[in-house]
Amino acid sequence: MRRTLPVWALLASLAGPAACSSASSAARDASSSPAYGAAPAPMAGMPPRVMQTAGESTHSGSVREESYDAEMPVAADFAKAAPPPAPGGGAQLPAARPAPTAATPQPAPTSSGAAPQAAPQAAGEVSAARAPLLVYTAEIGMAVFEVGASLAKVETLARDLGGFLARRDDRTITIRVPAARFDEALKRLADLGDILQRNVVAQDVTEEFFDLAIRIRNARAVRDRLEKLLEKAAKVEESIQLERELARVSSELERLEGRLKFLRDQIAFSTLTVSFQPRSTEPLAPSGPRLPIDWLNELGLSRLLNL
């Protein structure tokens, strides 16, 4: 293997023995100087690195002597100090998952499995279906100066309120007015004269009304079945029996429907009956002293004492 000589050795061989000794001394002085072969000082802000000793062979690739700075930061510190990557450049770390939140408590289902508001709603429908059905009637006795004129005023009152005249004679009149204006009719009648008596009745027919509706529905179903059986009857005796039963059911159905129609009319229009009697225009004679003996009073002696 060919050996390469240093530059100073070549110069010394050319210059002679004196120059060679001088170059050798200069080389020894340079090797003993601190600036020769020493690693440059690290710059400010740069982390210290592994330092190799002077005269180390660069061909073997091994380090014979190493020294580390005690203040060298660990990898975690570099990770903290490193700035975040720019958007769109490099791989992005997965976003942190939010902490799980507590589940919102839900109302427990009822034993029947229905919503809590279902029961009040059903109760409201039942109460609306069973609203009371009332029939209002009134009987009034009045004292007036002119009976004929008062009768005409009552008839006019009925027409003004959307009602009609039901019956009339010399001193009594019966009118029908809408149930919604029943109270108004009573107030206006009180202005016609002096009320001697008044009787107002509110009859609840709710139960009877719905019972009639159910019975009518059942009677119609029976009638329809009887009519179908009559169409399929093959014997005369069977046809006669079916016709007799069909006539009975039809008659009962007509009676029930008539009663239901009557109740509807009574509920829609209230009935007021007013009776008039003439009021005397003569002043009543003042009553005199009463005698202790009854037969003297019958003779009219008390009138003589008033003279």
From TrEMBL:
Keywords: Coiled coil, Signal. Residues 28-48, 92-121 have a biased composition (Low complexity). This is DUF4349 domain-containing protein. Pfam families: DUF4349 (PF14257). Residues 216-273 form a coiled coil. InterPro entries: DUF4349 (IPR025645). Residues 134-286 form the DUF4349 domain. Residues 28-121 are annotated as: Disordered. It comes from the Bacteria. Residues 1-26 form the signal peptide.
